[in-house]
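During the no-cost extension, the postdoctoral fellow (Dr. R.K.) reprocessed legacy sequence entries with the updated structure-token encoder. One reprocessed record is reproduced below for audit purposes.
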Amino acid sequence: MGNRIFSRTNGYLIFYGTRIPLDLAGKIVDLMMYRKRSKVFFYDGISFKDAIDDVEPHRIMSCYFPVDEPSFSNVLVHGRIFDVERSLPRIACLRDSVAVEGFGRDLSLDFDGDFSMAFADRDLVVALRSPVSSKPLYLSRGVEACILASDPYPLDLLGLHYDYVPAGTILCVESSEAVRVLAKKYYTVDVPCRSLNLEGSVEMLRSALEYSVARNLEEVRRAAVAFSGGLDSTVLVKLLQSSDVKPFLFTVCSKGSYDSVHAKEVAEALLLDHLLVYVDEAFLEKNVSRLLKMFGRANLMDLTIASIFNIVAEEAARIGLKHVVAGQGADELFGGYRRYLNILRTDGSGSLEAHLKSDLEALQGYKISRDDVSISMFAEPIMPFLNKKVAEAAYSLPPEFKVDGATGERKVVLRALAERLGLSEGVCRQSKKAMQYSSGIQKMVSRIISRV
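Re-encoded structure tokens follow.
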């Protein structure tokens, strides 16, 4: 989707202020080259040298990694805006609205999608994230300059302090004598609990997920799925099929692991293309080394999950697939983790809901960068659970449709949806198995990092 109004990117950087540290800017661009799939563009398609020459009069330098043909717009979008035709006029006038009226009035930003977006000129930088978002955005600011970046890792490696921009937030950066940042939350998932029975709740959730899958994969005919044969990924596979998207399933695991058997059985029952990617320690060590160089530091769990997603994306790209679908967000929305049952039984439903909301916020902050980056090196990540309508559906459910304190069942409504979609009892009732364990990958990663 090339467009004169905005450029779709695989990530971007914006440097803005009265004095931009050019040496630092060059280092950050170099460290973020893992997002480069074809070329790196500076605004208007100029070179890095020309961009440096252009900084002095304009006090701004923007750099982006295009997804498709660049449009050389100063409006940069990482991810997908839904209903583009309706949204474009609003995007076009948003910068002027903020510049003239500031944040003194309520901003009616009726956008949906999964994106971060920034637009900049010499007077102002405006940035925002979609209401619910897997596309992160970070702000590092000093007295004379600030940096907006899609990723935290180059900032980490260079020892820069930064904050993440929360989902559903718009910020404005001005620079006259010093950098000034204004931020406002324009959207919060705040919906009343609806009086629906389980059947009605399942239909509401199904409608929301069908919407998210269809919009996230509009005009896409084939997509890879990071597949374990578990509840989340298998539900997404069925929803892809109902949206006329042909899923190709990828399972990264060690031989003899739980996933090597279970994922194969589920994929065969679904009659879908499935690639079991068996990895050994020698193969995995190269992948882990690449990720450690990119992350700088990471704990065992993060390295394991990043390795799995990174290998899935690389294998998908090898056969020409450009999109990887992942089930991130389902646990935080529907109570998938075991600790949620303990919280419910110990502290009650109010505490459970508070923890779910806090965990979803944390996921959309720093944590989601791990998954976005590890996939984005080779393909476009698609995370349908992280969507405004899906989150609103989840938060309108009574707690017992997420976690049942009496039976101990978690993700109650999602399991009921799986049944409605015709999935087997083995999928619908399977207890949660974290991918780092069920794949057998974490044991190998642990041995690898002990040698590093």
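The radius of gyration is 22 Å. The chain has a mean pLDDT of 88. The remaining legacy entries will be reprocessed before the final report is submitted.
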